[in-house]
Amino acid sequence: MIPVIGFVGYSNSGKTMVVSSMIKILSKRGYRVAAIKHASHGYDIDIPGKDSWQHYESGAQKVIVVGPSSFTIHQRCPTPPELNDILSTVSDVDLILLEGFKHEPHPKIVIIREEYQPEKIGINHEVLAVVSDARANYDIPLFSFEQLDSLADLLLETFIQND
Q: What is the pLDDT of residue 80?
């Protein structure tokens, strides 16, 4: 089973920056990483006016765009898919990093900015570590935004090297 680690925090806390940094760090170390982003307010995947956008806007249930080094599937769904259904489509990677999905049960890294109250985040048994620019005392590892290499070490020690 591929390890799944979630990165959670308030809007503008730095989740995307931390996840992107983890992807870069882990990829440079030779690990294959998948990222799944929860867009609770919706998202646009295509550029208005492009052919694939026109196909989707015309009502296609599924649009697949194929390029020389990637492909993208844009599919309509009557309700948001369950996280486990999404995870079951991912293969050939060493780790799956989630951005968001804070209410789903999985190990989490909590991102906290000093301007927010840490008490609102909900540090519980699922939380493996905290990344923050605030000084705080936790019973779990605390990393600054400048210590993301050390966070990557913790993820590898916890999820890969102990397999």
A: 87
Q: Distance between CA atoms of 14 and 133, rounded to whole angstroms? A: 10
Tell whether the model's pLDDT for residue 107 goes beyond 80: yes
Residue 94 domain boundaries: 4-43+79-159
Global pTM reads 0.87
**Domain count of the fold of the chain:** 1
Stretch 143-152: mean pLDDT, rounded? Answer: 97
| 102 lies in some domain | yes
Residue 138 lies in a domain: yes
Any idea what the CATH number is for the domain that residue 12 is in? 3.40.50.300
